[in-house]
Amino acid sequence: MATTVENLPSAEHERPIGFGRLKRKEDARFIRGQGRYLDDIRLPGMLHGAILRSPFAHARIVSIDTSRALAHPDVAAVMTAKDLETLGLAWMPTISYDTQAVLAGDKVRFQGQEVAFVIATNEYSARDALALIEVEYDPLPPVVNARRALDPDAPIIRDDKPGKTDNLATPTWEAGDEDATERVFADADVVATRDVMYQRVHPSPIETCGIIADFNPQTGQLDIYNGNQAPHVHRTAYAHVAGLAEHKIRIMCNDIGGGFGNKVPIYPGYVCAIVASLVLHKPVKWMEDRSENLISTGFARDYLMRGEIAATRDGKILAVRTNVLADHGAFNGTAAPVKYPAGFFGVFTGSYDLEAAYCHMTAVYTNKAPGGVAYACSFRITEAVYLVERMVDVLARELDMDPAELRLRNLIRPEQFPYTTKTGWVYDSGEYERALRLSMETAGYEDLRKEQAERRARGELMGIGLSFFTEAVGAGPRKDMDILGLGMADGCELTVHPTGKAVVRLSVQTQGQGHETTFAQIVAEELGIPPADIEVVHGDTDQTPFGLGTYGSRSTPVSGAAAAMVARKVRDKARIIASGMLEVSVADLEWEKGAFQVKGDPTRSVTIQDVAMRAYGAGDLPEGVEGGLQAEVCYNPENLTYPFGAYICVVDVDPGTGAVKVRKFVAIDDCGTRINEMIIEGQVHGGLTDGVGMALMEMIAFDEDGNCLSASLMDYLIPTALEVPDWQTGHTVTPSPHHPIGAKGIGESATVGSPPAVVNAIVDALAPFGIRHADMPLTPSRVWDAMQGHPLPPV
């Protein structure tokens, strides 16, 4: 018997016109398997590429023989560095103004580096032909330890750079006042110091990286299908690299199976596929496998940090100081605004009212894959928050003070906003104490401490960890921030058609965040058009305005603001048209969501749909008003936005095995104005899971020869529903005063705040063993080592 499934409408409260809980518009196609991802695309006559990768972390290339591969009946071509040199494309720029070999010619600098590119009629033959390429290597000593990279006798990794005599990847960077900080530390009652490591981790999106390049020699048009997070930036970069005009390059992103920063960079495989299509005049597809993604694409973190914190005996935090050693891998592919080589690490002062702060950072090359992307961390803010929140807990132990009480004594107060930190960041708004007290109330903090005391008396290991964080998201403003010289502003276009249906065109690119719903709701809030009647267009450079893309939680703070502003421009024009329709002055009109009405006489009104029809219809419009109902803006934020949150984690540690169970997690977030509760909850749940993974299991590890030991999901562990608790979430609302709708962004908050909460909880659980710090990932074996008195950093 057939089952009938009724397609019932959502409840009224789930169909808001504007902000509110609304089921994601895009999910209808996803849950039906109708999403269109890169690997779903098949073009007529399409060829397939595969990359031969180096088995060595550091080696000279003596010779490459491709003759056997070229003899394969299905192989169309094989590309090496020599072929690219003839085209002037052997090296490409990174987004940090470094250079990176497209295919290795002189030597390989990390295991997995691209050496040759095979193009064949199908993906299987392309991969088979890789085994037919013979490469002779002369192995060199690898540098896989960032500290070793600074040794005077360390092998020089980037000897391609004329005159290079060291392994420094960037000039040293500093923030804050070194002398003032030194004076505060000299006079402090208490100083605590710790070496803190944030291990190398990987975004590992469910869909790996890939591209289809399709060059038409008759028209000179290059069409690119590619799941990337910044299509307009990629188009400009390709225009420079390939020598084509930007209007002759079209990038179409379609649906993307996750990004997390991994799909911000331009990878050598992209350039190889484009070159192959330009030369062969056929579409060429390259799609990496999981191992390639893990060993060669943009990683995150890999920071060694020495933290120092100074305070009075009664718990007033006075200053924070840190010295950072950053491992950038073989090429500097860090994703950050150009003026900020350490990203936004300058917010390492945290959420506290300090007298002084200072940071010194050194970045080095090593024989590891390049990267440094923002894995849901807002340009190194995860590292900054992890450092300061670990140091606050270290200080609390030193003072024998409850870590919650220490934080409450030092949080920035509401009346201090806008607050300028000692490193120059201007926090926009916040009610920090309210958020922390709400998290404590939600968790039942006092009862948890009583339970912990009882359990410890029985020999059980229960830990309670807190973290409080402030993010800096929404890059620009363009006067201070750019990527490859492109100012970090975003465009947005809006058209309301005669029937009142609308199309909004964005410059940001979703990878699963729910843009098609969120941006429809922003426009709906401003115009009163139901979200179902608003189409959101993104990811196609021929159909969208220029902008800098999606990363660093900038979609809502920047493009969300642009969407609100462009809707207001349309509404302003609609008001003028409505005044003519109602034969009153503009000043005599009131706006009620979706309609203009005459002040004092609400029976005389016109809807936005009525106005749209008049804007395109017959008859005169008010003087000076052109037909149609559309507008465009380019929004340049005046400042970043600063979401914040207070998290509490409860763990149980098995004293026999060292296994950690996250029993309870409370997350209180403040992202300013909340557009869609359901989407916010999804973002927070995902970020918390990310954070638990980094704290407990995720790490890209290497042996002393530079072999990557985390080249599959059997070795690089990612948390599942079995490893995480049922999340308890809550919120406060402190709108951003300079954002058009007060929104601050939420996409990366949970990933920023959760790792220190988990680690603080584990260290708290191990307090009976005298443990004051242990580095991530806190796997059972590493926790066990700590319990035996050997809390060593991971290798």
N-to-C span: 60 Å
Strand order of the largest sheet: 3-7-1-14-11-12-13
Radius of gyration over all CA atoms, rounded: 28 Å
Query: What fraction strand?
Result: 15-25%
Roughly what is the average pLDDT, rounded to an integer?
95
Number of helices: 19
Helical coverage, percent range: 25-40%
What's the total number of strands? 32
Q: What does this 3D model show about the protein?
A:
- The chain has 795 residues and is α+β, with helices and mostly antiparallel strands.
- The chain is built from 19 helices and 32 strands.
- The strands form 9 sheets. A 7-stranded mixed β-sheet has the order 3-7-1-14-11-12-13, with helices on both faces. Strands 9-17-16-15-10 form a 5-stranded mixed β-sheet, sandwiched between helices. Strands 20-30-31-32 form a 4-stranded mixed β-sheet, sandwiched between helices.
- Helix 17 (677-696) links the parallel strand 31 and strand 32.
- Helix 15 packs across helix 16.
- The longest helix is centred in the last third of the chain and has 28 residues, at 555-582.
- It is globular and about 85 Å long.
- The termini are far apart.
- Residues 1-9 have low confidence and may be disordered.
Please specify the SSE layout and strand pairing:
Layout: H1 27-30, E1 47-53, E2 59-65, H2 67-70, E3 75-79, H3 81-86, E4 91-93, E5 99-101, E6 107-108, E7 114-120, H4 123-130, E8 134-139, H5 146-149, E9 173-176, H6 178-187, E10 190-201, E11 210-216, E12 221-225, H7 231-242, E13 249-252, H8 268-280, E14 284-287, H9 290-296, E15 300-311, E16 317-327, E17 356-364, H10 381-399, H11 403-410, E18 419-420, E19 426-427, H12 432-443, H13 445-457, E20 461-470, E21 482-483, E22 486-487, E23 490-496, E24 502-506, H14 515-527, E25 534-537, H15 555-582, E26 589-592, E27 595-598, E28 601-607, H16 608-616, E29 630-635, E30 644-653, E31 660-670, H17 677-696, E32 728-731, H18 749-765, H19 780-787
Parallel strand pairs: 1-14, 12-13, 16-17, 24-25, 31-32
Antiparallel strand pairs: 1-7, 2-6, 2-8, 3-7, 4-5, 9-17, 10-15, 11-12, 11-14, 15-16, 18-19, 20-30, 21-22, 23-24, 23-29, 26-27, 27-28, 30-31
Helix pairs in contact: 10-18, 14-15, 15-16, 17-18
